[in-house]
Design goal:
By secondary structure, the protein is an all-alpha fold. The chain is 72% helix and 0% strand. The chain starts with a helix and ends with a helix.
Length: 148
């Protein structure tokens, strides 16, 4: 999933668990590998063929955009610090892979996150990879808003 998708999911979780940070942060972190099992496209697709500068730029831009959009949607519904922590918890799996991908740090914990993600990530090409993300994020946001 894109960082934007993970941020929105983390934001929806924060907004729906506002009085229970232990629950919200935990669910946000666990949501990442679960939704990555759904076939999707992201900027890491074909990362071996990209320059490290391009990969860093695309990933960082996606992360910044995702945080901004999530704050626009959920920023008034919960504590901003709690929202940010849930966003980063939902992004943490990909963040922990970046040293492996960018700097060839093929040792613990970065290699562990990369290997686990490599086994659980289900990739697909455009346009289906964006459509599956849009449906997943929309469905989760609606369900979490409904149960809140």
């Amino acid at each position: 999933m894109t960082a934007t998708a993970h941020a929105l999911i983390g934001g929806a979780i924060a907004a729906s668990t506002g009085n229970n940070p232990a629950l919200g942060i935990s669910i946000s972190a666990i949501s990442h590998p679960i939704v990555d099992m759904i076939p999707h496209w992201d900027f890491g697709y074909g990362w071996r063929k990209k320059s490290k500068t391009l990969l860093l730029f695309q990933s960082s831009s996606d992360l910044i955009f995702g945080i901004a959009v999530t704050f626009l949607i959920f920023g008034t519904t919960t504590n901003p610090l709690y929202l940010l922590i849930c966003i980063f918890a939902s992004e943490s799996w990909d963040i922990m892979q970046m040293p492996y991908l960018l700097f060839n740090w093929k040792f613990f914990p970065f290699s562990t996150f990369y290997k686990f993600s490599h086994q659980t990530n289900r990739k697909t090409k455009m346009p289906w990879g964006i459509l599956t993300q849009a449906a997943t994020v929309t469905g989760l946001v609606l369900v979490l808003r409904f149960i809140h």
